[in-house]
Structure formats: C-alpha cells, structure tokens
Batch of 3 targets.
Target 1
Amino acid sequence: MSWVEVRDTLVAMTPVAPSELATVPNTGVYAWWDLGGAIPWPADFPAVDRSRPLYVGLTEKGGLDERGVRMHLKTTRMSGLRRNLNALLHDELALFGGVTAHPKRKMSLTKPLELQLTSWMLDRLTVTWVVHPAPSSVESQIINDVLPPLNSDFAHRGTYWVHTDRLRREVHAAAVAAGQARGFKPKWSKTDRATSPDSNNGCESEDQCQRR
C-alpha cells in the first residue's frame, strides 16, 4: 500500500477502543483520536480539528499489540504520546509531584499516576490502524500530510509541534527542579548532557533525539 492509501484507510476507519490493539500482532501504522474533545488544549495552542488524528506512529520491530498495550498504555518513559499527554493533562490529573525527569527530556510517572493516565486514555481516546510490512516507508509522509498535534518528528510543516515541545520542556524542567529540591541530582552522561533540559543537541524536537 502507498502512503496515500494507508493515510486514507487510517482516516476512513471507525476508531475503536485502544484495548483492541492487543489483538493485532502485526507491524503497521496506527493513529490515536480524541473525537470527544477530551484534551484541555491551552489557550495559546493552535486550534485542533477533532477529525484530525491526535498522534500517528508505527511499529516495525514488534507488533501493534506490543506498541499499543505495553508502551502507549503502560509506560510514559517509553511513549512520546504519553509524555505529551502528561504535559497537557498535568493540571487536570494533578500529576504534580509524581513526575521523574530522565535524560533526553524523557519522563516517568509513579505507578498510581501511570495507571491514572492509562485509565484516562482508555476512557476517552480511540485508535485506528493499518497493518503494513514496512511502516517506516510511509509514516513520515502521512505525518507530514495530516500534521497530528501530538507528533513532533516529521510534523514541522505545521505549528503544533512547537507548542507541544514547549509544554514538554516545561514539565520536564519542573520535574528536574522538584527532584533537585528533594536532594536528587540527575546524573547526565556526556551523551545525555547534550540533551539535558538546557540543550537540544542540534535536534529540532525531542523525537529527533530519541524516536519514541
């Protein structure tokens, strides 16, 4: 399938519950949706059309079940989608104090907050997917075309990624500061130091430094 065919199929399909990803062991491209308008977008965030996918990604080394259930629905540190949602829902879900900062601007949540974020996603978001043997051959074109608001990599033709990147930076910086106030000092390696909160290591976005 061409990237246009994959895109059109992703958009045309009826979104289903995220838990359905557990039934798909194949590689492919997936899209997350917020059709109900559950996300509290900041006032200065560009207007988001609910008919636009919220986030588009791929899984090429494992199945859609692994990417969807074991990463996006479980571990914030391993999911760019969850890290963006953490930044957007920081106030609504009272995530303050439960965020731990990691190198390359990654973050993790305490177990209770991980479960809380997962529950929020299961109750409000939906997914579509297309099985594809070589998803990396079509992903960039799809993202560049539909410009999902929570994607950074391949989405620089639009304006969403700038705002999303800023929100993630702010939450990560706050987590670093909170950790230091508790006496915790992150140990950045030489490689990680280049991508600490004060540096981009030449990357335009976090996703370019560390893909998903």
Target 2
Amino acid sequence: MQDLTILNTEVGQGGHGEVRVAKWGDNDVAIKRVLSGSDQTQNTLYVSLMNEMKVLSKLKHPNIVQMFGFCEDETVKERSVCIVMKYYPKGSLDKYLYNADLHLDTRVIIQMMLSIASGMSYLHSMNIRHQDLKPDNILVKNFNPKENICDVVLCDFGLSMLSDVQNSETIQGTVTYAAPEIKTGDYMVDAYSFAIILWEACTREKAWSKCKFNAEIEEQVKNGARPDVSGIHVEKKGLVKIIEKCWSQDPKDRFTFEQIFEELKKCEKGLPLNSPVSGLPLNSPSSARRPEMVIEEKIEGRMDDSTDWEAFENILMDFGCEKPEKFKILCEGNKVSKEKWTKYINYFQPLITSRTKHSAQIGFTLGQVADVISLPFFHGDLSASEAIDVLETHGTSGSYLLRFSSSKGNLTLTVREPTDYANLRISYDLQDGQIVFCGGEFKSVSIRELMDEYERKSPEIDGKSFEFKQACNRIVKR
C-alpha cells in the first residue's frame, strides 16, 4: 500500500466496499476494496473479491481488465483486501447504451460486441465463465463514433467460476441478464447474457424495463418469453439472428463465442459502404475511402495516450501485422505513447492491409513499416544537426545512419566523411505492385539491400563521392 497514492475520486461504493482511483507510479489505477468481517453480506463480498483476484491472476487479454496486483490494507480497523487494476476513465458501457442523446450506428455496435465476444471467447478458453455479464461490468477503453470505434474490456469477475468449482445454487447473476438455467448451467449462460446486451445495444432500451419485480422476469424467462425484436431496424437483421440464437431456451442451441465472433464479422461485411446506418452521409469523402486507408486512424483510435506493450501488440495483430515485435523499439519502458506512434506512422501513410503484384495503391503494410523502423541504424526523428552530433560522437569516416526526413514520406541517409557530412534523401515508388526505395542512382525493394549497394559502390551526393563503410547503430534513446 505504501507505493499507492489513493485519490479522492470515488468511482463506486457499496455498504461494505468501494472502488477508488489511485496513482501507482505513473499509472492511474482503480483500487477495489472490500472489508472482511462477521456480517454475512460483508463476508460474501469478501469471498467474491478473493474469487475475482484468483480469476484475474490467470488472465491476460486486451479485452479483459488488467490486474496489477493485490494487497491487504492494515490501515483500517478490520482487515481489507484490495485489487489493484487498470483504471478506465471513460466508465462502464451502461452509460453509453442508455444515453438517448448519443447516436450509436450499426458499425459501432458491431465493434463493441466484437470486443466483448473476443474477451469472452478467451475467458471460456481458459475454462472460466463470467456468470454476471452485463453493461455495468463492461468498461469502455476507446470510444470514437466518428471512426466507428468502440473497444471495451470485461471486468467484475466476483461470480466467475473456474472449471474445477462445482455449480452452486447461490450463483444468481443479475436477473435481467440471467439465463433460465443460471443456477445449474454451464458456459452457455454467458451467451444468453450476451444476447440481452446486444438487444439493448440495438434498441437502446433496458431489457424487461416494464417488469416491476425480479420474480416476474425470472418467471417469464423460464417460460420462454424474450424481449421483442420486431422493432429492430431491418439492416440489423444479422444481429437479430445472433440475438435469437444466443438466448435459445436450450443452451445447446446457442452460439459459442467463437461462432458469435464469426457471425458479427459477417454482419460487418454485409453492411453497405454508404449505408445511412453506418453514420456516414452518402456524399461523405470518408465513405468513399477504401477500408485499408484508415488503418492508421483505427489503430490510433484503439490506443490510450500511453498503451501497454501487450495491448499494443494485440492491436497490431488485429490489423494483420505478422511481426509486431519489431515495433517494440517504440516502447518507453513497457508502454507506447500515442504521440510517438502518430509521429512515426505519419511518414508511411497511408497504411494498407496487404500488397500483391497487381496493387495500384502506394502505401505501406505494417510489416514493411516494421522492417524499416527496426533497422539497427534507423535513428528515428533526428534533425540534421542531431544526426551529425551522433556520427561525430559515435561514428568514424564512412559511418552512416538513417532517419526521418524533414519532408513527409521520405527518409534521409546521413553519412560522415573525414571533413564533411552529407545527406541523401530516400524516397519510394511503386513498381509492378511493389514498393521500391530510391536513393540517388540506386533502387531496391528494401533499405538493407539499398545500403549493400551503397557499401559496394560509393554514390555521388551533390557531385561528390561518399563512401558508406559501416552503419552507426542506435546507441541512444530516440
């Protein structure tokens, strides 16, 4: 507890516990604390928190809340257990779903549900079921409706059950989202809860809001009644299919979360590009852009101001990057700042998903960007004078380094000679569907091959021949 500075901000409270914001080093964290004691309710909450701690210690996924650790607080009269978790200032999903003034188009809803399905699929793969999946237990990580971004994380695993724990008659969940077999069911109770959340996202209404008592909801659900889907927009018919499948009375008839994820992807592909439901006007310039043209913006939209490396790595893989580890040079500590990502990627825009020999679009894949910035002699955002200082201090005659050019979309090679320095601009072009790097009289499909040419044949820069003898590799933090 000595390393934590608890702030006055309280984000949740109950009769026997609270959630507060705290500082842990440079991280904003949430402290979830429950007191132990003889009171039955208090003791139940204490056991629930201990169970949550046990579950979270097994989990690591971009759509599962991150636990940094746990501790006992001896500063209070009664023993208190605290879980230290990542803090998500945007709050829980219920604040978004039930806000009538906030427009959520179909693409945003699909992105939201994809991140829930991804987290739940991982949870089930770890032989854990949530048992209390609902909007209050889902935190919003990134939200940008203009770019159709809604990324969330699952939290509150107090009722979650591990595969080695027997079913319990005390497991209730939250009645609105509870499957008819909640007390005796298996993993499919979570699919039922997912269906109710998706119904609420499509209708922007609270399920069973006309029922006054929990017993009334339980009775209707057991008898096969479900919320009305007839008023859901026809363009969401694919989502209605998922809803109806996932809240089937027989758990065996429900989709698994792997199947849910695939069905959501089909719905996403089936939306017309210029659909009014997509939130883009028919004549919007953005609606005419190819999907791969906004990769850099989508990645940025899923980042926090400072994103943990593990989460950033998962984001890159979601966008088809096969070599995410090469981007680790962007890390400061174990985090990647959005500012640094934006600065670096600005030189390579637009990003594209893939390239074939028939490609007509000039742009880089994430893999090609990784190949450039991970070169050991690439020094990033250095000015000409800073490059000279590096070569003066750490290089010799014939040493060279690569850096960003002052002109967007170009790179610069700076080389040292005994009495002079020179800068050679590296541009790129498209030949036969392939990116080709061009510098002086030489061209190549990779920077490394281009440098091999320079080392074999001394190029002329401004009418003077320069020798490229050895790379000046990164030795200082960029």
Target 3
Amino acid sequence: MKNSKFLSIVLSVVLSVLSVALLTQAATTISTNITTGGTLSVTDLATLVNATTTRLSVSTGLWINGNATTTSAGAISTQSDLAVVGNSTLTGTLDVTGKTTLVNATTTRLSVSTALWINGNATTTSAGAISTQSDLAVVGNSTLTGTLDVTGKTTLVYASTTAVSLSGNLWVGGHATTTAAGALTLDSTLDVTGKTTLVYATTTAVSLSGNLWVGGHATTTAAGALTLDSTLDVTGLATLVNATTTRVSISDALWVNGNATTTSAGAISTQGSLKVGASGSTLTKMVAGYCTIATLSPAASSTAYADCTPDTAGLIAANDIVMVMATGSLPRNFSIKAASSSATDVISVQIYNHSYNSTAATGINSFNFIAVTK
C-alpha cells in the first residue's frame, strides 16, 4: 500500500515536469504587462509590435521588419530608405552601397569611393573631376590646383587668376574678345593704366594721357613733342607742320607741302613760287631750253626781228621774262639785241647787223634761253 502511494507521487512529479517543458517549447501569448527584476533573455527571433524600451541589447544583429539590420559590430544595413528627422551623430564611418538622398544635410567632410551625384545633374567623379548639367555658381573664392576644363560658356564675376588658357575665343562682358589666333577685338575703348608693351601691334588710332614709349627710347609726350635717342627712319611720305631741325637726311626726294621737291640728285622742283633772299620778286616759274629761228637778213647797221620757236611746247607764256644767248653758230657779223615773249610758245628776237663783213644772212640758228614768270 505504501509502495503504491509512493509510485503515484513520483509519476505525478514527472508528468508535471514534462508538461512545463512542453509548454515552454511552444509559443506563449501574454495579454498583460510583464515586469521582471532581472534580464529577459530571448535565444530565438523576437517580434515586438508597438514595443517601448529605454534600452535594448542584442548580442547579434537587430532585424527591423525583416529589412533594416544593425549588426553586432555596430554597422547599420537597410534594404530601403533611411529617414532621419533630427540630427545624427556618427562617430564611425557610414558605408552606403546604394544611392543616398540627403535633404538639408550638413557635414564637415564627405568621402565617396565613386562619383558623387547632386540632384541627378552635378557629378564629382572619383578621379576628382566636376561635371555639371547646369550653371556652376561659386559665391566665395575658389582654389583650383589642377586644370578646369569647361566645354560651354563660363561667366566669371569678379574673378582673379594668374593665367587662363582657352582653345577657343575669350569673351569679356559679351563685347571684348581674344581669338584663338591671338587677336584682341574690342567694341569699346581699351583703357590701360600701367605700361603696355605691344609687339607687332597695328592700330588706326591710339590715345594716351601720358607719354608714349617705343622700345624704351622714342617718346611722344602729352604736349605733342617727339623725343628720340636714335635716328628717325621714315619709309613713306612724312608731313611736318611747323617743324624745326638742324639737319635732315633723306635718301629720296624731299616733298614740301606736296609741291616743292628736292630730288636725291640735288635738283629743286617746285609747283608754286620760288623766292631766294629777303628782297626781290617772287618767281612762280623758271624754265630753260633752246629755240630756233629761220634765216634772217637785216640791212647793214640796222636790226630785224625773228620768231624763235622753243623746242618744247608749253614752256613760254605771254609776258614771260626771257633771256636768249647766241651760240657759236651765229655769224660774228650779227648779235642779239633784245628778246621777249609776245605770245604763248613764241620768243621774239631782235638781231643787229654790225656790217663787219659782207655776210648778209644769219642762216637758221638755235639759241639757248631762260624764261621766268613773276
């Protein structure tokens, strides 16, 4: 009897232990709050709906809705967007394998292993190049240690640089242009406050408020004076108004006001008046040549007149002052007493017969003449 009671007690204890073990291996639903003074350890996955806690410690990865994961090493992995409403402080490195959209983000440093896309348009490549589909606006100073390549037009406001290189034209304000060939085109005035050195420069006009220095030697002052340390060589015509010089050397003819000319051979040719000395008459023309008369037979001890025709037409005008000189061909019995220009291209010659011998005719003779016009 005692044995049977002992056996029943042992069986009851065993059944109770087995029942508790079976209940703990199945899911347990608790409809009220659980308060524990110790640690609640969960060895398998735990799903928390509307859970609130001041601290949560997980020995392995923390899965949130099957997508976002915080690993035991401290990294955050998410299969979707990571939205942060407030400030985020990261003491370690944030690695993002997909694209990341940052709205109103602030950082002192950002490191990207590949290209950085900004709003889908501007890109900074991993090689350090900047590519933009729109305008590049820089408010502060920009320091570029490498080359900035711009394929489109670039507008720089208050830009400073020690050197700029362009394969095409450089436009300044839409007006001034420096071409790829090196020419400078301006729609307005070029103002230069400092000294300017021009090599092989060509211009139709230049205006300077100070002196113009040429090669460090020739100077044109603001008052209009020209100062030279060497020789002034002029290959074309030079017009000098109120010029004064102690000596002038010209390899070709010297033109004075387009009319008077001194040739390189030393001859003087003038299209206007010529006056030598302080007094006397001004001559407007001086010509020389020779003229020819037909045979003339003055009576003994008397004179006769003959027309002497110049060798070149247009040399003699009416009322010219004419000087005629006989040559050795005129017989000694005759001499020229007077000469005058009575008409155009006609010199009237008066010949006297001295009756030294029996020669009665002069024969055809040519005489030298000089004619001047006052």
